[in-house]
Design goal:
The structure is a single chain. This protein has about 160 residues and is α+β, with helices and mostly antiparallel strands. It contains two helices and seven strands. The chain has helices at about 30-45, 130-140; strands at about 50, 60-65, 75-85, 85-90, 100-105, 110-115, 120-125. The protein has a five-stranded antiparallel beta sheet with strand order 1-2-3-6-7, sandwiched between helices. A two-stranded antiparallel ribbon has the order 4-5. Strand 6 and strand 7 form a beta hairpin. The longest helix has 16 residues, at about 30-45. The termini are far apart.
Length: about 160
C-alpha cells in the first residue's frame, strides 16, 4: 500500500462538518482525484465509509465499502428514493475518534446517485449498508451521528 494519496480527516469541532455540501457538476480529473484520495484515506483509517466534507471538501460525494459483494461504491449527488423500517445500531465516525453511540436508521434504503463519470445509478441496501448510506448522507447536510445518538437501556 505505497503511494497512497492520503488527506487529513477533519475532526468534530471544525465548522466544515456542519455545512451543507454543493452538488457536483464537473465530473473531471479533479473529481476523480478526490474520489481516489477519499478511497485511500478511508482504507488507511479502517473506515467503511467517508464523505467529502470529512476531507475538507464541500461536495455531495461519499464512498462506502462494507466488504460485501459490491466492494467500493462511489455516490455522487445522492438522493433518497425511499427508506423503510428502523434499526438501531452502534456507530462510530472517522471525524469523532473514540466515540460510539446507538443511532436509529432505516432498515432499508433505495438511493439514486451518479458514478465518477456522471452516469446515474440506483442502489438498494439493508442492514449495515442502509446504516452506512444514511450515516454518510447525513455528512452531506452537515449532520453528525452524535446528533442522533439515542440513549441505551441504562439511559446513557
Amino acid at each position: 500500500m505505497n503511494d497512497l494519496a492520503l488527506r487529513t480527516v477533519v475532526k468534530e469541532g471544525d465548522e466544515i462538518l456542519r455545512k451543507k455540501c454543493r452538488e457536483v457538476t464537473d465530473f473531471d480529473e479533479k473529481c476523480k482525484t478526490l474520489l481516489d484520495d477519499m478511497k485511500d484515506t478511508m482504507i488507511n483509517a479502517n473506515g467503511v465509509g467517508i464523505a467529502a466534507p470529512q476531507v475538507g471538501v464541500l461536495k455531495r460525494i461519499f464512498l462506502m465499502d462494507i466488504h460485501d459483494e459490491n466492494g467500493l461504491l462511489e455516490f455522487i449527488n445522492p438522493v433518497f428514493i425511499t427508506t423503510e423500517g428502523e434499526q438501531i445500531s452502534c456507530e462510530g465516525c472517522l471525524s469523532i475518534p473514540g466515540f460510539e453511540g446507538s443511532v436509529a436508521r432505516p432498515a432499508y434504503v433505495k438511493i439514486k446517485a451518479q458514478d465518477r463519470d456522471g452516469n446515474e445509478f440506483v442502489y438498494e441496501g439493508e442492514e449495515l449498508a442502509a446504516v452506512c448510506v444514511s450515516h454518510e448522507y447525513d455528512h452531506l447536510d452537515g449532520i453528525l451521528f452524535r446528533d442522533k445518538v439515542v440513549p441505551d437501556e441504562d439511559g446513557k
